[in-house]
Amino acid sequence: MNPDGGLAGPERLVYFSSVSENTHRFVQKLGVPAIRIPLHERIEVDRPYVLLLPTYGRGRGDSPTLDAKGYVPKQVIAFLNNPHNRSLIRAVVGAGNTQFGAEYCFAASLVSHKCDVPFLYRFEMMGTAEDVQAVRAELAKFWEDEDTWHLQSQLQSL
Q: Which residue positions does the secretion signal occupy (predicted)?
């Protein structure tokens, strides 16, 4: 992050992490410039970004639909309801728990669908060393040419 609070470097990342800090720990392992969506305040970004977010599921066991509620953290909804922030999203990365079956990383699927951006990668909980390497590589490849932001990633496995 720049001293002025803006995103720096080719890997521009915005993320949300709850008080569990799982997503925050993953982002720290990535070692890329990132801005965290706060729990209580609102922020506005000034450059295109990839959004990394966890899924809040209820573990209902059903197959969620694209109009489902309760999966995307409220702070992320507020962030994306700002038209300026929403206009700058370029892709998503999802964190989740495979114990929730079809709900695994579903928040990122919803954001990808509603914002019409690619879903680059998904990982479980705090991610593995392999997940960290894969996300770093995917972000670097993605930002090499911002004009390719609309192309789906080869790493996506729905």
A: none
